Amino acid sequence: MDLSHPFAIAGITGLVAAAAFLIRWVAARRRLMEDARIEYAERCESKPATVRGVDAAAFERLYVAAYEPRWALYAAGTLVLAIAITPLAALGLVALWPVIVMGLDGGPWYDEGYYPWMFYMFFGFCLIWAACGALMARIHHARSPEGFVPALARARGEPFDDIVIPRKRPKWAVRAVPDPKNPGQRDTGTEPANETN
């Protein structure tokens, strides 16, 4: 295998980037595990009601799941998937090209290596790599964990779904008085001008 080929260089660069993302994710998880242990100990001392019924292992799991940089893990997965699928995509795109140009006039400019073919291959690869990114983004979104505060409330056994958070009325809304004659009109504090026909 020729390591000086542009595809080999791009593949190696992508794998190095994927490894860097993976290392970033692992290092962040380790730091968060330590932070979770410290946070749990502090809460047990100062705010025991916030961790009532939650053991240290469950607290650590919830804390890490809520704050870990999941994007780094899925970015690494996207790069590995794109690198793995590229050879198959190249074979598929090359096999599909004769079918696409079959109905055209068949001039030599549609042969492999000319501009239409290069345009097709470039945007074909871009589409396939974008599909890899879209798939991993979809998985990332579908598997997103619950926020830390609601997850901790559920772990304590609180019916978090039934809690209604009251919204404070804005200061400007206290002075606003709707017109009972015209409920759709905003009160501007001025009298409407008399219109004459």
UniProtKB/TrEMBL annotation:
<protein>
    <submittedName>
        <fullName>Uncharacterized protein</fullName>
    </submittedName>
</protein>
<keyword id="KW-0472">Membrane</keyword>
<keyword id="KW-1133">Transmembrane helix</keyword>
<feature type="compositionally biased region" description="Polar residues">
    <location>
        <begin position="185"/>
        <end position="197"/>
    </location>
</feature>
<feature type="transmembrane region" description="Helical">
    <location>
        <begin position="71"/>
        <end position="97"/>
    </location>
</feature>
<feature type="transmembrane region" description="Helical">
    <location>
        <begin position="6"/>
        <end position="27"/>
    </location>
</feature>
<feature type="transmembrane region" description="Helical">
    <location>
        <begin position="117"/>
        <end position="137"/>
    </location>
</feature>
<feature type="region of interest" description="Disordered">
    <location>
        <begin position="174"/>
        <end position="197"/>
    </location>
</feature>
<keyword id="KW-0812">Transmembrane</keyword>
